[in-house]
Amino acid sequence: MFDDLLVFCLNDENWPRAIAYARSLAPSSGGRTTVLVRKAADLSLVDADASTRVVHCRSGLAESIGFHAAWADVVVIDAPAALADLESILCDGGRPCAVLPFGARTPAPPRRIAVGWNGSLESMRALKAALPLLRRAEHVVVLDAGRKSHEMCDATPCAATWLAERGIFAARVRSDSAAQGGRTLVELAAEHAVDLLVLGAYRHQRFTEWDTGATLDQVLRDGDIPVLLGH
């Protein structure tokens, strides 16, 4: 679980479920949640308790997110209408982001987790960021793209092997998601009944191209589970 979480919403309607999901990622006691609001009206939508701290944007949005994210283990945000907004949050914040899917339902706590893997630096960072959740998961599956994103990947252990060395058993599924797009990831996630998808994210010509070969927009719109991104 994550001890320190930052919550930020682009859509006011998503505050209740974003905060509820953030609390499901924190330990039952001792976790700290910081809620970053842009305007006073947001306060009426924030269900604050003793473990929740509310802060306001005092300068530019990117600067505020970057400052408060520096103290957090993970940033919980709602799915943006434009991926450019997510790019700014992910890059300026410098922390992994748990992105809620579109819709009104509060996602279930992550008990069954899928990891998108191709050995890239970004997928390694995402895997490492998810480790606190993976240690407590009931089921873990590695969706192996079966391709090398960089020559250094030859020296990189498979994600399933890396997890096994840390006492976490993970099933391994070979997936040609690079060729078939985000829909394949959504279908595999549904097949394994996972409630969190872990992905590495990087810019390659466009921010919408991900190391699994899928677009985040397709994963968020077609799927109904959160995505934990590492950059």
Model description:
The protein is an alpha/beta fold. It folds into two domains: 96 residues, Rossmann fold; 119 residues, HUPs (Rossmann fold), CATH 3.40.50.620. Helix content is 30%, strand content 21%. It is built from nine helices and ten strands. A ten-stranded mixed β-sheet has the order 3-2-1-4-5-10-9-6-7-8, with helices on both faces. Helix 1 links the parallel strand 1 and strand 2. Helix 2 packs across helix 3 and helix 8 crosses helix 9. The longest helix has 11 residues. It starts with a strand and ends with a strand.
Regions with pLDDT < 50 over 5+ consecutive residues? 204-214
Our count of helices gives 9
Give the end-to-end Cα distance, rounded to a whole number of Å: 20 Å
Major sheet: order of its strands?
Answer: 3-2-1-4-5-10-9-6-7-8
Helix content estimate: 25-40%
Give average pLDDT, whole number: 80
Give a quick account of the main beta sheet: strands, pairing sense, barrel closure: 10 strands, mixed
Shape: globular
Compute the number of structural domains: 2
User: Which secondary-structure class do the elements indicate?
Assistant: alpha/beta
CATH superfamily of the largest domain: HUPs
SSE ordering: EHEEHEHEEHHEHEHHEHE
Protein name: Universal stress protein
Organism: Tahibacter soli
